[in-house]
């Protein structure tokens, strides 16, 4: 949680990203038996994404698909809220990232509909 707190400070957020903090945080978003680690990573990435250059790095590191998965019906409400907030901050940084989020959400919705047999 300390990293998430540090990421709220602009200059520190830029330094964290420059020092390579983003890829390990994105890895923590993947399927895990540690939902607390996923939540903490999502919060840290949300704060880091407040800087547009960091948002580009976060998107390029592959954070969008796992964040979208974290908004799915199998996730606890608290995780969904954090992932939605992180996606909102990322999407606000650029039109390209916003479009990538929309595409990932559309794909996730199509997969869910197929899984439910509603396609």
Q: Overall mean pLDDT score?
A: 85
Order of helices and strands: HHHHHHHH
Strand content: under 5%
Task: Give the beta-strand count.
Answer: 0
Sheet with most strands = none
Q: Which value, in Å, is the CA radius of gyration?
A: 14 Å
Low-confidence stretches: none
**How many alpha or pi helices?**
8
| Helix vs. strand class | mainly alpha
Shape: globular
Distance between the termini: 40 Å
Secondary structure: helix percent: over 70%
List the helices and strands and how they pair.
Blueprint: H1 2-6, H2 10-18, H3 22-28, H4 35-48, H5 52-60, H6 64-69, H7 77-93, H8 95-115
Helix pairs in contact: 3-4, 4-7, 7-8
Describe the structure.
- The chain has 119 residues and is an all-alpha fold.
- It has eight helices and no strands.
- The longest helix is centred in the C-terminal third of the chain and has 21 residues, at 95-115.
- The model has no long low-confidence stretch (mean pLDDT 85).
